[in-house]
Amino acid sequence: MPPTVVAVIPARGGSKGVPAKNLAAVGGVPLVARAVRECRAARLVTDVVVSTDDAGIAAAARGAGAVVVRRPGDIAGDTATSEAAVLHAMDAYEAEQGTTVDAVLLVQCTSPFIAREDIDGVAAAVVEDGADSALTVAPFHGFVWRDAEPEAHTTDGGYGVNHDKSFRPRRQDRPQDLLETGAAYAMDAAGFRTSGHRFFGRTELVRTDPARVLEIDDPHDLARARALAPLLDAPRPGALPGSSPTRLPVIDDIDAVVLDFDGTQTDDRVLIDADGREIVAVHRGDGLGIAALRKAQLKLLILSTEQNPVVAARARKLRVPVLHGIDRKDLALKQWCEEQGVAPERVLYVGNDVNDLPCFDLVGWPVAVAGAHDVVRGAARAVTATPGGSGAIREIAAWLLGPSL
Question: What is the DSSP letter of 161?
Answer without folding.
Answer: S
